[in-house]
Amino acid sequence: MRNGYALDCPIAHTLDVVGEKWSLLILRDLTLKGPLRFQDLEAGLGGVAPNTLSARLKTLEAQGVIGARLYEAHPPRYEYFLTAKGQALGPVLQALRNWGEHYAPDVAAPQSR
Fold first, then answer.
1. Which residues span the domain enclosing 76?
2. Is residue 5 part of a domain?
3. How many domains are contained in the chain?
4. Distance between CA atoms of 102 and 95, rounded to whole angstroms?
5. Of 30, 42, 60, 105, which shows the fewest CB atoms inside 10 Å?
6. In a domain, 2, yes or no
7. How far apart are CA 39 and CA 34, in angstroms?
8. Strand 66-72 vs strand 36-37: parallel, antiparallel, or unpaired?
9. How many Å apart are CA 23 and CA 15, to the nearest integer?
C-alpha cells in the first residue's frame, strides 16, 4: 500500500507502512526483545487475533520492515526480526514511549466487563 491517505506527505507515507493497529506494538516487541516467534508475539500482545497478527506480519515483511526466518519446515514456522529498515524506526518508537510517559501516564487499559 502506498499513500493510502492520498497525501504527498512523508508522515502519511510512514503511516501507510506502520500505522495499522498492532503494527507499532509488534515493532516495539521486536525492538525490545529481539527476534520472536509468532506465538511469542501473540502472547506479548495479549488481545490480538491470530489472523490480525498474521496480516500485520505479512504487511511489515512486504514493506521490508521485518524479515522472517524459517525454523521449522513441517508445518512451516517462522521467527521474525527487524531489518535495517525496521531498526531505523527505533528512535521513533523511543519518542512515542517518551511522549506516552510524559503526556499519557494516567491512561489506563480498557477494563473487561
1. 10-103
2. no
3. 1
4. 11
5. 105
6. no
7. 14
8. unpaired
9. 10
CATH code where residue 21 lies? 1.10.10.10
Q: Which long-range contacts (CB under 8 A, 24 or more apart) does 47-53 make?
A: 48/22, 52/21, 52/22, 53/22, 53/26
DSSP letter at 79? E
Residues in the chain: 113
In a domain, 89, yes or no: yes
Q: What is the pLDDT along the chain (113 residues), one digit of tens a residue?
A: 455 788 899 999 999 999 999 999 999 999 999 999 999 999 999 999 999 999 999 999 999 999 999 999 999 999 999 999 999 999 999 999 999 999 998 876 666 54
Residue 1 resides in a domain? no
CA distance 112 to 101: 23
Distance of alpha carbon 58 from alpha carbon 88, whole angstroms: 19
Q: And the C-alpha cell for 42?
A: 501473540
Whether 82 contacts 31, CB under 8 Å: yes
